[in-house]
């Protein structure tokens, strides 16, 4: 069975959903390419800059970035080398291991992030116009799908509540024990700064 075979796709809702998701995955690629062209950078170079901007230093090593973007360490190292040559990032060597380093943005790097991170705006504007109840259903489905993809080891790094040591469930109610809050569906995070692996 192939979701790309139109007869099989159009006669089965599951196939149509997967085909729709595949179509949606193209949206980010197209929008990011547009920004990349304007900046003379590759999409992954922009993704690295944006990631570094919003994550703690310990998550900006080559190893961590390789896992985050499902790429090899040499591919990330090459991208980082070019970003350094363009003076968009600076490397900070680990005192205990001179081969290891974390990456921080330079002022020019910050400017590039500011000019590119809005590549998601067209989609965001559409989501903003969606009814609140529909948004919640969409979010519940997206977050569950991400967890399943992570369990299937298709998405490697997931800083989501469901993988976090501070997540707990009591009498069917979900909690974050670190922030001492009840987690309703809309509170579940897929990328949390306080996340700690179980
Ligand atoms: S620390 Fe963050 S990821 Fe962990 S349970 Fe709390 S909100 Fe979720």
Topology:
Layout: H1 6-10, H2 13-39, H3 43-54, H4 62-68, H5 73-85, E1 89-94, E2 97-105, H6 107-116, H7 121-128, H8 132-151, E3 167-170, E4 173-176, E5 181-182
The structure holds iron/sulfur cluster.
Q: How does this structure look, described?
A:
The protein is of the alpha+beta class. It has 2 domains: 6-120, Orthogonal Bundle (Arc Repressor Mutant, subunit A), CATH 1.10.10.10; 130-187, no CATH class. It contains 8 helices and 5 strands. It has helices spanning 6-10, 13-39, 43-54, 62-68, 73-85, 107-116, 121-128, 132-151, and strands at 89-94, 97-105, 167-170, 173-176, 181-182. It has a 3-stranded antiparallel beta sheet, with no helix packed on it. A two-stranded antiparallel ribbon has the order 1-2. Strand 1 (89-94) and strand 2 form a beta hairpin. Helix 4 packs across helix 5. The longest helix has 27 residues, at 13-39. The chain starts with 5 loop residues before the first helix and ends in a 16-residue tail after the last strand. Iron/sulfur cluster (SF4) binds at residues 161, 164, 166-167, 176, 178-179, 189, 192, 194-195. Residues 161, 164, 166-167, 176, 178-179, 189, 192, 194-195 line the site of iron/sulfur cluster.
């Amino acid at each position: 069975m192939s979701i790309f075979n139109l007869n099989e796709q159009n006669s089965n809702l599951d196939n149509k959903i997967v085909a729709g998701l595949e179509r949606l995955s193209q949206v980010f690629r197209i929008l990011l390419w547009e920004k990349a062209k304007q900046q003379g950078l590759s999409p992954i170079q922009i993704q690295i800059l944006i990631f570094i901007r919003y994550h703690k230093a310990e998550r900006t090593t080559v190893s961590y970035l390789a896992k985050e973007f499902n790429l090899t360490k040499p591919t990330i190292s090459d991208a980082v080398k070019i970003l350094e040559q363009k003076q968009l990032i600076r490397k900070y060597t680990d005192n205990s291991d001179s081969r290891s380093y974390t990456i921080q943005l330079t002022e020019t790097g910050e400017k590039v992030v500011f000019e590119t991170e809005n590549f998601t705006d067209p989609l965001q504007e559409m989501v903003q116009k969606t009814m609140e109840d529909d948004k919640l259903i969409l979010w519940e489905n997206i977050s569950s799908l991400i967890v399943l993809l992570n369990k299937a080891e298709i998405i490697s790094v997931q800083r989501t509540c469901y993988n976090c040591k501070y997540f707990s469930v009591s009498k069917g109610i979900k909690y974050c024990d670190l922030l001492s809050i009840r987690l309703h569906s809309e509170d579940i995070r897929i990328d949390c700064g306080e996340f700690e692996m179980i």
